[in-house]
Amino acid sequence: MLQLNDVGEGESVGYGRRFIADKPTKTATIPIGYADGIRRAYGNGKGEVSINGKRAKIIGSICMDMMMIDVTDTGAVVGDEVIIFGEEIPITELALKWETIPYEVMTSISQRVKRIFFKE
Questions:
Q1: Handedness of CA 56, 60, 61, 66 (dihedral sign)
Q2: Is residue 113 part of a domain?
Q3: Which residues does the UniProt record annotate as the domain Alanine racemase C-terminal (predicted)?
């Protein structure tokens, strides 16, 4: 996670003011976006990520290189790990929300995302 911000009631986040806070909200900016393979349609409260074992809604529009999430109830601090999919958010769940199959989700992740291969 790159940055934390406090957003007051009535303030907006993201391009086109797509998210307007209905209460004081703590937001985080994370360095992944549609250029990395995250669908833009997954923003604006449709998608979630996991941080500190808790789910956090994606708020506002997903940008090219980043997205914003609501971390109000997560206890998040700058530098915390954010999970896009994994044990906490199965890739099958992500595929259902994207209206596709897990294989397409995996192949849509761009070459910008570092790969680490494990061999047993």
A1: negative
A2: no
A3: 2-118
Joined tokens for residue 100: 């596709």
Chain-centroid distance of CA 117 in Å reads: 23
Concatenating the DSSP letter of every residue in 37-60 gives T--GGGTTTT-EEEETTEEEEEES
The whole domain housing 41 covers 3-108
Residues 90, 92: Cα–Cα separation, whole Å: 5
Residue 57 falls inside a structural domain: yes
The answer to the question of residue 98 being in a domain is yes
Give me the pLDDT at residue 13, please: 92
19-20 and 54-59 as β-strands: parallel, antiparallel, unpaired?
Answer: unpaired
d(CA 99, CA 108): 13
CATH of the domain at 8: 2.40.37.10
Read off the pTM: 0.88
The chain-wide mean pLDDT, for the chain, equals 93
Q: Tokens for 76, please give them.
A: 């998040």
Does 95 reside within a domain? yes
Count the domains in the chain. 1
